[in-house]
Amino acid sequence: MELTQADFIPTLNEYVDFNIRSSDPVIKTMVDDFCDFPGSDDIQSEIERNKSKKRFSLLNGFNKRIDDIIMLNRYALYQYNINAEKISPLLKDYDEQHNGIFSRIYNEHDEEEINSARSAFRNFNIACEVLSARKIADEGLIIHLWATIEQFVKRAVIIKDEGIENMPFKWNALKKLSKDIGVDLEQIPSYSIIDEVRVVNNKIKHLYVVDNELGKYPGFEKHVGKKMSIIDYKTHDYALATYHFMNRLIMAMGPFISYAPDR
Question: Comparing C-alpha atoms, which of 25, 27, 23, 26 is closest to residue 10?
Answer without folding.
Answer: 27
